[in-house]
Amino acid sequence: KNRAAQRSKYFRNKYPPFLTPKSSVARGYSGLLEARKRENPRRPLRDHTFMAEVHIFGEVVGGAEFSASTLFCKWGIVAGPAWRCLEGIQSGQTQVDSPHDDEMAKWCHPIDLHYATRGVQGWPKIHVQVWHQDIFGRNELYGYGFSHVPTAPGQHTVECVCWRPVGNTADELAAFFVGGGLQLRNPDLVYSASDRFRLRTQAAGRVQLRLAVLVRNFDKYGVEL
Fold this sequence. Notes:
By secondary structure, the protein is an alpha+beta fold. The protein contains three helices and nine strands, in the order ααββββββββαβ. The protein has a five-stranded antiparallel beta sheet, with no helix packed on it.
């Protein structure tokens, strides 16, 4: 009797009341929970219930004022350790666009992210890399850039100014005749303040972003913007 009661209590806690432990649905339910835990083991399920939330959505509109056309953009969004991404993809890459004359390269690449946070420290930043693709399909870095995601709720147009590393005369001659150019060993320097002041850079162009920011439960949980 006691063993049967313990077994019943165990399955009652492990499965929802509408599932039985031997059913295929129950096995699928358990597999789903395990998959979600493996996907992000640091975050318990439903732990964002008592946290403020930020929803960021919009698009990478395009790039302009670069030295060549046929451009594409790699982008990513980073946030501090107090932030957890609940939904969405935090990095991506646009298609290649070849505008006519000096028009802006149009990408219109969507961004849609949902965060939970316990404070404003480590507010999300968006960083970009603009690349040029030549007629042979070779890719060359044309610029790095980053910008803070606006803290005010609403719709915003963000201009992300880009730059590229500059080497010595031999490096610049090799880049001019052979191609390739200089790249950062650690791309994290683009959005972190450490040692960035040591870099020699040159203005490269700008990337336009259109972002909308929604905030939720900031007052309820004492988080001040």
